[in-house]
Design brief:
The complex is a heterodimer of chains A (427) and B (427).
Chain A: E1 3-10, E2 13-19, E3 25-35, H1 41-52, H2 61-70, E4 75-83, E5 86-96, H3 107-120, E6 124-125, E7 128-129, H4 131-146, H5 152-164, H6 178-182, H7 186-199, E8 201-208, H8 212-222, E9 249-254, E10 260-267, H9 277-289, H10 294-302, E11 306-314, E12 319-326, H11 331-346, H12 352-369, H13 373-386, H14 392-400, H15 404-413, E13 415-423
Parallel strand pairs in A: 2-8, 9-13
Antiparallel strand pairs in A: 1-2, 3-5, 3-8, 4-5, 6-7, 10-12, 10-13, 11-12
Helix pairs in contact in A: 1-4, 1-7, 3-8, 9-12, 9-14, 9-15, 10-11, 11-15, 12-14
Chain B: E1 2-6, E2 11-17, E3 23-28, E4 35-41, E5 49-52, E6 55-58, H1 63-71, E7 73-74, E8 77-78, H2 79-85, E9 88-94, E10 99-105, H3 109-121, H4 127-145, H5 148-160, H6 174-178, H7 182-192, E11 198-204, H8 208-218, E12 243-248, E13 254-261, H9 268-285, H10 290-297, E14 306-312, E15 315-323, H11 327-344, H12 348-365, H13 369-381, H14 389-395, H15 398-408, E16 415-421, H16 422-426
Parallel strand pairs in B: 3-11, 12-16
Antiparallel strand pairs in B: 1-2, 2-3, 4-10, 4-11, 5-6, 7-8, 9-10, 13-15, 13-16, 14-15
Helix pairs in contact in B: 1-7, 3-8, 9-15, 11-15
Classes of the chains: A alpha+beta (427), B alpha+beta (427).
Chain lengths: 427, 427
Amino acid sequence: MHDVIRRTIAPGVTATCVNTDKFKTGCMSVNLITGLDRKTAAMSALLPRVLRRGGARHPDMRAVADALDELYGARIEPIVRKKGELQCIGFYADFADDDFLPKGENVLEKTAALLGELLLMPRTRGGLLLHDYVESERVNLINDIRAGINDKRVYASDRLLENMCSGEAFGTNRLGGESAARGITARALTRHYQELISGSKIEIFYCGAAAPERVAEALTEALSTLPRQECFTAAETDVRLSPPAPGPRRFTEALDVLQGKLALGFRLGECMKEPDYPALTVFNAVFGGGVTSKLFLNVRERLSLCYYAGSAVEKHKGIMTVSSGVDFGSFEDALSEIYAQLAAVAAGDISDWELLSAKRAVITSVKSAMDRPGGLEELYFDHAVASIKFAPDELAALADEVTRDKVASIASGVRADSEYFLTGVSI
Amino acid sequence: MKLKSYEKIREQIYSDRLPNGMPVFVVPKRGYNKSYAFFATDYGSVDRRFKYGGKWLDTPEGVAHFLEHKMFDTEDGNALTSLSANGASPNAFTSSDITAYHFESTEKFEENLEILLSFVSIPWFTPESVQKEQGIIAQEIRMTEDSPDHAVYYGLMKALFRHNPIRDSIAGTVDSIAGITSDTLYDCHRVFYNPSNMALCVTGDVDPERIVSIAARTLPRESGERPRRDYGPDEDKAPAGGGTTSSMEVSRPIFLLGAKADGATSGRDFLRRNLTGSLALGLLAGNSSPLYMRLYEEGLIDSDFSAAFETSAGVAYSMAGGGSREPEAVFAEFKKEADALGADGPDAELFSRVKKAYTGGLLRALNSFDSICYNCVSGYFRGYDAFESADVLESVTADDVREFIRVNLAPDNMAMSTITPKQEAAN
């Protein structure tokens, strides 16, 4: 198993250190947490990409790449996550454990130092982030935002949420919008950087074999110049329990594609007043989470309507989405089957086998996530953001105790909010 | 039972051969929650023509993949759902040269292993169940046909190869799978799913002796015949055509360029050639190569650009690609760089740095049970020991890399596949 130490290392800066020697590599992430906002989302997403281009001691991509190669192929990558209505940006690093390298390499300290340099000592000219880096990465960001259309399954989910939550911060894409990205200047980005670095909540995560004292020392050293204010306004997610309209709103879009995509958005409703995360996870597994779920067994296996049909719960915001790829002519059949299956869960029509399988799936997925450095990072990060107090193995134990009534009562509060169809173009 | 230890990477493999001739590998991992089993046959989408009952038999495109889907059916139900209900997380995949069935579980591992070994060995198909699956797989095919990554890859395969079945999509086409019957599936199972053509690898906190005895009592006693297959005559390195272009709903051009490499080798030579090829592509176009830096800074590529060396049954090829506003310009620069590196070889310092980085990548892969088992089994099928990668890598020289590039990346032998945006195509 592993030991976990969580402590505040500077005002608003919390470090979680998971100590385990079962992996051959360690990982470290530094996350600046800010409210997801249509106006600033693209700037926030752009920031780590610009910082990654070079710092005071490693001024360009060449120098950064060489340093990482010297650190036995360590990686430091920009990371942008959306958790409810929070946008979390920063870097994710992973690197070989010292145990497998020649003595005295200190890859942990050197990687942490490089990460700290990129984060805190960016290349500037006249006090502003380097214009060339901002311009070049702004173009790359716009390309990435536009590339959202390339994967139609992801595109359908993104378009659903943009439409369904158009009046909420949650409707903003993780990378922000194209028009906001177009307007970013080096001056605006520099100001945004200074605000975030001194005023946002920061979550740091380490997982690996190094002793906590050594990790703390490496982090303190690497982040010694971090400027911090004394107080912080923590951003929060606005959870809406019900849809704005009585019946589901429908959005349709046509592209020149061969397969239709169906994306449905639901509000989780009453259960979000006092969210019971283990029960929510089991509910999702019963309804559409995996190969024993009602959606898989009915929409795919019984009716042969699709290759995939599944649901996902966004527990921070209290939204559930369902997605499937079907023939254009099968939209209505798939749709009515999905609603019928949700109604069945709400009516408590859940067999012992279905409930048991769902719990097994949840437990296996939580426990096996703890067997990957990235899985542990995600679990603890998610918990930190949602202020979930129990550890992952407690989550697994609690999932095992969820009752059929509890699952049914969650389902009965769920309300369809929006339907999104991606159809083909008629010739 | 044999035990082999690998000092550098601190791993051990237990191996044994069952009375029926099939090998079993066990890689012990302590301190993990999950264990993982990987049961594979040396049979992929390219194995369409083979000897059966003294005659050569031709089977439809997509049959190996179709068989993979149908194997989960058992006389009493479905193995996918029984494994899931038993706390396992099962899945399967078909590649061009391997079909593999695998699961991870945090409980009841041995029971689940028995289910896995048994359902893969005992086929159970009916005309009705085959017909039902045609609907599901048709949707899977439609989904991949809308994927630009899929299209650009097969565009390149068709541009490079004249007749080798690597040109054709793994899942086949909606038309080709319509010709598959339960008899086709039984024939393919009889030829390829026998112990002479399969291997099992287990990773986790397990008892190797018990794994071997479970396999010995669950699997067929007869070894079966090693299948004979035909991919047609060997191809020379000249591409089949100059290139392919098609238009899809994408945001900007997507390209993949490549060249055929020397075909089949086996054993340690195969491993050494793979590692040499990967290093060569890394030095030529990886993200610390001079070419990558130059193209990135000119805005011709961004971080989604990648380069790789791939092998499959009887074929090998290099490829590189991503998104770009000007694929032709990237192609021209890539050719120029390959020409120069093939003549002069890589910079000595860069070579040793990239090699050092590669060792970190090998360590990272050893965190993943999937990649441990996949590498172990595919190494066995090709006659090499994947855990010797770190040692073999050390023996690769800058001269080997230069020679690889000179022989396998001659500019005249390269071709490119491009996907252009619909809107642009209309103009």
